[in-house]
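## Example pair
The file below holds two records. Each record gives the amino-acid sequence first, followed by its structure token line.
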Amino acid sequence: MPNPLPDWLSPPPGIKRPEFCTERDVLAALAADDAGPAELAALLSPAADALLEPMAQRAQALTVRHFGRTITLYVPLYLSNYCSSGCVYCGFASDRTTPRSCLSEADASQEMDKLKQMGFEEVLLLTGERTPKADFEYLERCVAMAATRFHQVTVEAFPMGVDEYQRLSQAGCAGITLYQETYDPEQYERLHRWGPKRDYAARLEAPEHALQAGMRTVGIGALLGLSEPVMEATRLLQHARHLRSRYWRSGISISFPRVRPEAGGFKAPFPVDDTFLAKLIFAFRICLRDMHLVLSTRESPQFRDGMAGVGISKMSIGSRTTVGGYVEDRAKSAPGGQFEVSDQRDITTFCNMLCTHHLQPLFKNWDAAYRDAPPRAAAAFTVCS
């Protein structure tokens, strides 16, 4: 049976359903000083379609107020595409015919050196679910290597307990990214056919375990297209509010990935178009004024250009979803990626675009010295990267 939802994941009772919201409700949400689930419902309602421009203006004003005219940049580095789970939407699922690869520590070191030469100061290390080829100890060693090069090291990997997250933090990891994929327990069970990722509760609890362990940042999100998008958005907002209420000194970020073509040919049962995604980003900025909202290279150049600084405050660039892929010789022989990258611009082209939009590319707003602060003192820092 699917896992029951925890109480904090459901919105407060009495909130008007989006289809019953009116233009007056949308205008009230735009003017609200403390927007929450009720305002989100109004901002995602059909009535909001006629007010997208005021929503965009409000989102942009709030983004500038809290982040200035900057876009924080990071780069993902896939360490391994071995996986033990059977997610129907993922190119790394264990039944895919994609050739498997795992970077040796020497190769990982070369990839990191290349990213450093490209100017990056924040790297996101990724693996599939836990396997003998890419287990916790391997990830811990890669984090330690990255921490000697980059000011900000985060990981997107398998869920862990508090003890393992503490070890990663001690190795130099500042945060994690972990998408719930879908907040619908029944759909979650259907989409995750086998493997450790079938455990809905373990995945939902992992971001909190990371914060309990002393991680300074946590990124969450839903893979848009897997379930009804307004429900996903509502529960994602509740998840973010729950984490912030308990770990208010930590940095919480929200990502908006959409299902992209991958090796298994999966088609999204609830496709999300550009208009709704834009509305979703505006609504989250209005509800979560000072949280980083993140947009990856899954999205087209045109869409990313339009969202930069208009709700979105953080982006990846130059991404490869293959294992490695940044060192030239290795890039030519890299196996297939987890999904197709849509924005394939290089760093210079992308940064020039930001400049034409009067936005400053920000490669570093965190210093590695903070990683060495004693745990009690570290808890007093407010993280914004």
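Second record, same layout:
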Amino acid sequence: MTSKLSLALAGALLTSAIATVPVIAEAQVSVRGVRSCGVWARDRDNSDKAWLVGFLSGMAFQSNIDALRGTDNETMYMWIDKFCRDNPLKDIADGAEELFGQLRRKRGL
């Protein structure tokens, strides 16, 4: 198993336990490791990318909705780039939730 896949899987498993999944739960939970859009825009490093993929994978796993199917990681990074430019005071989790919802609707899920 590659280290990227291992990291994404670990992030997905961890995130599924602590992430707010807007299509299922309305309760607020603490999301660990999330960084601001300002940090994403400045750094956009591999740890931020891995966090995003893990968070989105965790949302898909927890909700049993395969919204990520057919979308490559680079496209998701570019979507978050635009989200953060348009919403500099929000954080990556806010963008990830919107992205997940948009992908879900696009696929009619």
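Notes on the second record: Residues 13-27 have pLDDT under 50 and may be disordered. The chain has five helices and no strands.
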